[in-house]
Amino acid sequence: MHIAILTFDGYNELDSFVALGILNRIKQPDWRVTLCCPSAEVTSMNGVTVRAQPTLEQAHAADAVIVGSGLKTREVVNDPELMARLRLDPTRQLIAAQCSGTWVLAKLGLLDLVPACTDLTSKPWVQEAGVEVLNQPFYARGNIATAGGCLASPYLAAWIIARTQGTEAAAAALHYVAPVGEKEAYVANALKQITPYLPA
Amino acid sequence: MHIAILTFDGYNELDSFVALGILNRIKQPDWRVTLCCPSAEVTSMNGVTVRAQPTLEQAHAADAVIVGSGLKTREVVNDPELMARLRLDPTRQLIAAQCSGTWVLAKLGLLDLVPACTDLTSKPWVQEAGVEVLNQPFYARGNIATAGGCLASPYLAAWIIARTQGTEAAAAALHYVAPVGEKEAYVANALKQITPYLPA
């Protein structure tokens, strides 16, 4: 199981790393979570330079993909060459987008007739791309999920874990990262957000 | 205002980057948030390599310091040379520690007679260092704050903002990162955690 977190120049640290940390709570030999970037290194909106793991192209072969968010998503969606490198396929991949990552999915035509979540700043751009934006932190239909607000990224990670490893594994991963003294309430609320969108 | 986030090899991504992202919501020319590392690059517990910004030594001159957490804190606290590079001074710096970062403060003697928060894994080590561990996500006394559970790191960041820029600025930064549809409840709970420990 390879989960690729697409991380572009100008990326938002929370949107890439919170999901990465939570997904890595699954300890299985074939479970691999990577930052997929368009170049060998990318620098965040706040100046944090990270080294890419696989290239963007390898996301095509991943079992799940999270499209991260950032300050330069406008440049991503307006770069036809870069967009052409994102060959995502919801018929065989779980596809999740965080905040302005939802705009990328919209521009790729993956949200046609599917409502979505995004952050307040990206909302008008996603709407302009013809997608209905929901006033909630998480939504999924079939193999496509979206989240809005940096700290909704645990819900995206939990959805991927629940879809592939079951709800108990998702709850355990959330429990580990939740604040001490608030763990039960945090897990219960997170599961309340994602459970309605899991297959029966 | 320089806030240094001490980030060691084997670091936990959430514990360094969530605080970094939230602290960077303050947009002022003299406001600077950096990853301070013992070497030019460090690699996280999950294989994410980041480039250090200032060196560890520069944390000595910072106005606030967050001691991050990670898989190799045992090696940090058992490395006298590395520990000697951490010249933290709560009489002139705000000092905050996340999860196993609390163990570093304990070993530096900064938590003598001060109870503290940490994660469930680090708890026995912090107790062994003679510090009372609280079953709550956040605690501060004077210029020293500690938090337990990765997702308690917004509370540490909010405490630093509240102490230097006021509670309204802290609330605004938290509001930005909170999940869509849960923003008011999230901010209210976070402020409830930190307000009792702010100067009257």
Your description of this structure?
- The structure is a homodimer of 200-residue chains.
- With 200 residues, the first copy, chain A, is of the alpha/beta class.
- The first copy, chain A, has one domain: Rossmann fold (3-Layer(aba) Sandwich), CATH 3.40.50.880.
- The first copy, chain A, has helices at 13-23, 73-77, 80-85, 101-107, 123-128, 153-165, 167-177, 183-194, and strands at 2-6, 32-36, 41-43, 49-51, 64-67, 94-98, 138-141, 144-147.
- In chain A, the strands form two sheets. A six-stranded mixed beta sheet of chain A has the order 2-1-5-6-8-7, with helices on both faces. Chain A has a two-stranded antiparallel ribbon with strand order 3-4.
- In chain A, strand 3 (41-43) and strand 4 form a beta hairpin.
- In chain A, 52% of the residues are buried.
- Chain A binds chain B through residues 12-14, 17-18, 20-22, 24, 33, 35, 41, 45-51, 53, 117-120, 135-138, 147-152, 154-155, 176-183, 186, and chain B through 12-14, 17-18, 20-22, 24, 33, 35, 41, 45-51, 53, 117-120, 135-138, 147-152, 154-155, 176-183, 186.
Helix/strand-derived class of chain A? alpha/beta
Q: Rounded to an integer, what's the Rg of chain A over CA atoms?
A: 15 Å
Cα end-to-end separation of chain A: 22 Å
CATH architecture of chain A: 3-Layer(aba) Sandwich
Shape of chain A: globular
The total count of helices of chain A amounts to 8
Give a count of the beta strands of chain A, DSSP E runs of length 2 or more: 8
Helix content of chain A: 25-40%
Number of domains of chain A: 1
Largest sheet of chain A: 6 strands, mixed
Strands side by side in the biggest sheet of chain A: 2-1-5-6-8-7
CATH topology of chain A: Rossmann fold
Oligomer: homodimer
CATH superfamily of chain A: Class I glutamine amidotransferase (GATase) domain
Mean of residue pLDDT values of chain A: 96
Sequence of secondary-structure elements of chain A: EHEEEEHHEHHEEHHH
Binned strand content of chain A: 15-25%
Low-pLDDT parts of chain A are none
For the record, what CATH class of chain A applies?
Alpha Beta
Largest interface in this structure: A-B, 45 and 45 residues
